[in-house]
Amino acid sequence: MNKRIERCTMAAAMALGSMAFAGVLSTVQAGLPPVQHQGAVEYVSGGIGLDESEAMKAAAKDYPLALTFAAQRDGKADYVANVGVSIQDAQGKPVLQTTAEGPYMLVKLPAGRYKVSATYNGAAQDREISVQNGGTARAVFEWK
After folding, report:
1. Does 84 have pLDDT greater than 70?
2. Which H or E run contains 41?
3. In 10 A of CB 103, how many CB atoms?
């Protein structure tokens, strides 16, 4: 009898744990801004507010490129939005041209070398980025 109670208790605990995990997962996915497409490129930008920011950070593992945008204000770095983003492949062909709607942008790109340009308040910065088949390449753009 004790083994039966033990098994039932274990099964109930596992079910509750699974439901809790599913709830956390759906909450993270629910906080993610809508996925957008431009040509063959899929991307998402945002990260304003704690829920959306956490969802973006959690989703980064599913995207080959993660960009972060910040600007120095009053001696500290603040996250910024409305950043013009342009990505070109190794041959200089435009791959993505958009505006980041928050401090984070996640982009699905095939493996290769890219030039990423980000413009905030009229000031542009460029980064050469290598996207691999596995993992996430990261670049931070900070304006001073």
Report:
1. yes
2. strand 41-46
3. 23
- The two tokens of residue 54 are 């956490």
pLDDT of residue 29: 53
The vertex-20 CA angle with 25 and 48, nearest 5°, equals 35
How far from the centroid of its chain's Cα atoms is residue 109's Cα?
13
Residue 17, H or E segment? helix 2-31
User: Amino acid letter at 20?
Assistant: A
CA dist., res. 114 & res. 25, Å (int): 32
Average pLDDT, the chain: 85
Task: Say which DSSP state 132 is in.
Answer: -
In sequence order, the 6+-apart residues with CB closer than 8 A to the CB of 85 are 45, 67, 96, 97, 98, 99, 100, 105, 116, 117, 118, 119
Residue 14, token pair as written in the block: 């596992």
Residue with tokens 């596995």: 134
Instruction: Report the candidate in 69, 62, 65, 63 with the shortest Cα–Cα distance to residue 83.
Output: 69
Find out whether 140 and 103 touch, Cβ atoms under 8 Å.
no
